[in-house]
Design goal:
Distance between the termini of chain A: 16 Å
Helix content of chain A: 25-40%
Shape of chain A: globular
Radius of gyration of chain A: 20 Å
Structural class of chain A: alpha/beta
Strand content of chain A: 25-35%
Order of helices and strands of chain A: EEEHEEEEHHEHEHEHEHEHEHEHE
Largest interface: A-B, 32 and 32 residues
Oligomer: homodimer
Chain lengths: ~325, ~325
C-alpha cells in the first residue's frame, strides 16, 4: 500500500555563499490524493548536481527560480506506486523532477519511463541521463571535438568531467585533466587514461597548462570558470572551441565576480565559447546512450558513484560539490530499489 | 621619375595606454633599389584602425608584434611607381600593408591589385576592404544574423559599426546602436536607420539596453568589450550570438582588465561568443563586395570618411579612435590620387 506520509526538504532561505543546513527545512506532510493523469512515485535515487545550487538563487536561470517554502527541486529516479494515467503502471521505473522528497505526486506526462538496462539502475545517473548526455553532446556537438586535438577538462574528477575525459580519449583526443588533489589526479591518469593531469591544489593552473599543453588547447570542456577559464583562454589555439558547461567557481558568489581577462585571446584566435544545457539534447538522448553504453561495456568508459545514504543527507551531499570532497557522481540513496 | 627619399613613421617606443606622439619617430631615408619581384608603391590612402594599436604592443597577436624601430604597420592604398614583377605595372592601384610611409618597396605578391569601382578610390576603405568585409561576414557568417532579430552594435558610429548597423537593417533586423554623443546618435538614427540608439555619454548602457531591447538581444556585434559587453550579456536571448569583432575598451589597458561578470548568461541562454578576424574571409571578398556595392548604389548603405591630411597626421589620427573623436572611417590622405 502507498505511504500516506511524505518527508521532504523544503527551501527555507536562500544561501549566501555555500548552502548550509539552515537553508533547508525538513517537513513531513500528508500526500495529496491522486488526481486524474497523475502518478505517485517513491524516490529511489536522487541526483545531486551543481545546478541545484543555481535553482536556490533569487533569480530565474534556464528554469524558474524556486520559491521559498517549495520542496527543493531535484532530478530523481523512482518507482511508480500508484497511477491514474494510462501510460504508467505501479512498478514502473521513472525519471523526472521528483524533488528532494520520499514520495511525490506528479503529472504522469512529466515523468520518463526508464528503459531496461544491462547495468545497475544508478547508471542512469552515473553514465547516462543528464550527466552522460552533457559530457557527450558538449564534446561532440557543442565543441565539435576531433581526433588528434588537445582537450582540457576542468573539474575533471566530477560526474560530467570524468566522463568527458574518457569520451575525449575515445574520440582520439589528447586529454589534459584539471582536478584538486593527488588522489583524484591519480584516478584520472591511471584509471581513466588522461594523458596529463593538473592538480590545482599543488600547482598554479596556468603553469600546469603551460607544462601540459605545449601545443596549445583546441577544445576546453569548461566546468569551473573564473581563473581556470582565464588560464585556458591564454593558451587557446586558432579556432579553439570552449564548451561552457558550468561555472562552479561562481555559483556561491554573493555578487557577480569579474570574468576572464583574456577574452582578447578568443578574438585573436577566432575562438568560440558556447554555453549549453543538456535539456536541449533530450530528443537525441538515444544517440548518446547507445555510444555511452557500448563504450562502458567495452571497458572504455568508467563511472564512479559517490553515494550518501538517506534523504536526510541531501543537504550535506550538495555541499560536497563545492568543497571538492566528491569524486564522480554524487547521489543520495533515498530508498531501496 | 620615382622619388628616392622616403618619409615614414617608425615605432620608437611602446605605448603605455593611449599612444602618444613620442611613440613614433619620423625618419627620412633613401629608398632601396628595386629587387626582382618587387614593386615601388606611393601611398595615397592610409587606413587607421584600432588594430594598429594592438600591433604596437610587446606581444604577438593574430600578426607578429612590431619590432621597435620598424616602420609602423598599416594598411594602405597606393599607386605603383615602378615594378620588377610581371604582375604589376607602373600606374596600377594596389592595396596592402604599405605601412605608415610615403613610399614602400614591397614584394609584388604581397600587394593586391584593386579592381575598378563605380565609386571613389577611398570606398575601398570606407565601404569595402577590411572594413566592409568585417561588418558583412561578422553579421552574416559569424553571427548568423536573421531577419526579425534584435541586433546590438557597439561603437556604432565607427567605420565597421556604422556599416554593421545598416547591414543589419538591410537584413531585416531591428538594430540598436550604441555610440557616444548626441551628434553620432542622431546620425545613426536619422541617416543610417538605427531603430534605437543609446548614447553612452548620456545614459548607462545597461539602462539603455533595458529601454531599447524589451525583447532581449539576439545578436551582438561587439566592438567594445568591458562593461558594454557585460551589459549586453545580461540581456541576451536564448541562442544569442556575439560576434566578437573588437575590444576597443581594452586596447590601451596596461594590465589585463577583468572580463565580463555575466558569462553565466552565455551558459544559461546557450549563447555563443565567437572571435573573428577579417583575414579569414579574404577568399570570399568578392561575395561581400557585390552585396555592399549594390546596397550602396541603392542608397541603403552609406559610409562617412574622417580624413586627416598628410602622413604627418597619422599618430593623431590613431588617437581619435580611442577618444571617440571620429565618426566613420578614419583615413590619412598621404598623396593625391
Amino acid at each position: 500500500m502507498s505511504p500516506k506520509i511524505n518527508a521532504a526538504w523544503h527551501l527555507a532561505s536562500r544561501p549566501a555563499g555555500l548552502p548550509t543546513a539552515g537553508n533547508f527545512e525538513w517537513r513531513e506532510t500528508n500526500l495529496p490524493e491522486l488526481g486524474e493523469g497523475q502518478a505517485q512515485v517513491q524516490t529511489i535515487w536522487l541526483s545531486i548536481d551543481p545546478t541545484n545550487r543555481i535553482w536556490m538563487n533569487d533569480a530565474d536561470s534556464y528554469l524558474p527560480k524556486l520559491q521559498l517554502g517549495e520542496v527543493m527541486r531535484g532530478i530523481g529516479i523512482g518507482r511508480v506506486l500508484a497511477s491514474r494515467d494510462a501510460g504508467l503502471q505501479a512498478g514502473d521505473l521513472v525519471q523526472g523532477m521528483l524533488g528532494w522528497q520520499r514520495c511525490c505526486v506528479s503529472p504522469a506526462r512529466a515523468l520518463s519511463k526508464l528503459p531496461p538496462l544491462p547495468l545497475p539502475l544508478s547508471a542512469h545517473f552515473g553514465l547516462l541521463g543528464h550527466i552522460g548526455l552533457t559530457a557527450y553532446f558538449g564534446l561532440t556537438d557543442v565543441a565539435q571535438a576531433r581526433a588528434g586535438e588537445t582537450l582540457v577538462v576542468s573539474a575533471a574528477a566530477g560526474a560530467v568531467g570524468s566522463l568527458a575525459v574518457q569520451i575525449g580519449r575515445n574520440l582520439g583526443m589528447r586529454v589534459v585533466a584539471i582536478a584538486g588533489g593527488a588522489e583524484k589526479c591519480r584516478w584520472l591518469s591511471d584509471e581513466l587514461g588522461a594523458d596529463a593531469v593538473i592538480d590545482y591544489q599543488a600547482e598554479d593552473v596556468a603553469d600546469g597548462l603551460a607544462r601540459a599543453c605545449p601545443e596549445g588547447i583546441d577544445v576546453d570542456f569548461e566546468n569551473v570558470g573564473g581563473r581556470t577559464l582565464d588560464a585556458v583562454l591564454a593558451r587557446i589555439n586558432l579556432g579553439a572551441r570552449i564548451a561552457l558547461c558550468g561555472l562552479i567557481s561562481q555559483y556561491n558568489a554573493s555578487a557577480p565576480e569579474p570574468g576572464p581577462s583574456n577574452l582578447a585571446h578568443l578574438l585573436m584566435q577566432r575562438g568560440r565559447m558556447q554555453g549549453f544545457i543538456v535539456l536541449d539534447y533530450l530528443d537525441r538522448a538515444h544517440e548518446a546512450a547507445e555510444k555511452l553504453i557500448a563504450w562502458h561495456l567495452a571497458g572504455r568508459l568508467k563511472y564512479r558513484l559517490d553515494v550518501s545514504d538517506g534523504l536526510e543527507s541531501a543537504p550535506s551531499a550538495l555541499r560536497k560539490l563545492f568543497t571538492g570532497a566528491n569524486t564522480g557522481k554524487v547521489l543520495v540513496k533515498v530508498s531501496d530499489e
